[in-house]
Design a protein that fits this description.
Arc Repressor Mutant, subunit A, Alpha-Beta Plaits, alpha+beta, 3 domains, 334 residues, two-stranded antiparallel sheet, 13 strands
Length: 334
């Protein structure tokens, strides 16, 4: 019979982390041995999994409901019934299981260790394999007159208004780390992702106006909007910091998991007074004061600017604007 050690090592391998020392321990905390065997038996309907493992059908239904709440299995509807599958890879395991409502403190603490000790090198490998990063920055909310010139997939407000259903969840990165002290319940789930969060109990439903208020508060707190790197079928709008974020903390290490927006900040030198607000707000070191000898105005490094617009939000002189510098096809259309 398969021993306990083998079960959790196999689960780590299933999420593409066969060499990890910590991922088997994460699974050990969140799944007992029967649950681990069920995960390894997926995909399948509840009836198929019950037959495979020799478990009564009603017992399997209960077990799958617990695994769903823990974020370890996902559902899809097929003609043969509801198919259950386990999380596919480490990022999905991270995002779903950290929002397990009953997670004990030691579970979050172990995830925090993983993000420091094992995540950076894995992320480096992934960044080298992917043709495009999975996520991208979207700009801050724009004035009405500016929105008429911005495409829908670049406009955070347009994404929210067309979502159909919205939910808010806690930021998984700040939930396990939180060293920056910035708002935690600010990650918006869009459409089917909202359905999932509400069914599972990991988020609460919000209307368009509350979602827009969350976006405004995130901007004021200095958080950057990030969404899926495609032009349709969005699932989330995260609001990310540079202290805890699983993507932004890697930029200094030369690891790119997030594309910039199609925009770049530009400074009107005649209006800039050199107050330095923008320099303090920029996560990415893209703004500096006194770029030219004798000058005290801000300047933008185009290689570092992610086009988030946080610098624009608090400029007292309205000296900063966003300029489209990348073509529409920069955003994958699929």
């Amino acid at each position: 019979m398969m021993n306990d050690e083998d079960l959790y090592q196999q689960l780590a391998t299933r999420v593409l982390m066969p060499q990890s020392k910590l991922v088997p321990e994460l699974f050990r905390i969140i799944a007992d041995e029967d649950e681990a065997r069920t995960l390894l038996a997926t995909p399948g309907t509840a009836e198929e999994l019950a037959q495979k493992l020799g478990v009564a059908a009603d017992e399997m239904e209960k077990r799958l409901a617990v695994l769903f709440r823990k974020g370890l299995v996902f559902k899809s509807q097929r003609p043969e019934g509801t198919i259950y599958r386990m999380c596919r890879e480490i990022a999905q395991f991270h995002d779903a299981s950290i929002l397990w409502p009953e997670a004990p403190p030691e579970y979050h603490q172990l995830w925090k260790r993983f993000m420091v000790e094992e995540w950076p090198e894995y992320a480096r490998m992934v960044s080298q394999l992917l043709p495009k990063p999975f996520s991208r920055v979207i700009t801050v909310q724009q004035p009405v007159e500016a929105r008429s010139r911005i495409l829908a997939f670049d406009d955070v407000e347009a994404i929210i208004r067309s979502a159909g259903r919205l939910a808010v969840t806690k930021c998984t990165c700040r939930l396990i780390d939180g060293k920056c002290g910035k708002p935690v319940e600010v990650c918006l789930q869009v459409g089917k992702a909202a359905d999932y969060a509400l069914e599972r109990g990991s988020g609460r439903e919000v209307d368009v106006e509350e979602a827009l208020r969350i976006i405004r508060e995130a901007e004021e707190a200095g958080l950057v909007h990030v969404t899926m790197n495609r032009a349709k079928d969005f699932h989330f709008i995260c609001n990310c910091c540079d202290d805890c974020c699983m993507s932004f903390t890697l930029i200094a290490k030369g690891i790119n998991l997030c594309d910039p927006s199609r925009f770049q900040a530009q400074v009107d030198a005649d209006r800039c007074t050199g107050c330095g607000n923008c320099v303090e707000r920029c996560f990415f070191g893209a703004l500096t004061l006194g770029g030219e000898e004798g000058s005290q105005v801000s300047s933008v490094d185009p290689e570092k600017c992610m086009g988030c617009g946080l610098c624009m939000v608090t400029c007292p002189e309205e000296a900063i604007s966003l300029l489209a510098v990348r073509e529409e096809d920069f955003i994958p259309q699929g």
